[in-house]
Amino acid sequence: MSQDNLINLECTVCHNLNYQTKKNKKNTQKRLELKKFCKFCKKQTLHKETK
Question: What superfamily would CATH give domain 6-49?
Fold first, then answer.
């Protein structure tokens, strides 16, 4: 994977970086928001893309 396509997803509740994923930056200019399981909160929370 290219380093340009890798992004980090941060939990909006506890602010831990839990996931790394990739996205096509040409097709998706907005920040990615996904509901994922946070192992620190122990529930599904909204995760947002960090800088």
Answer: Ribosomal protein L33 (2.20.28.120)
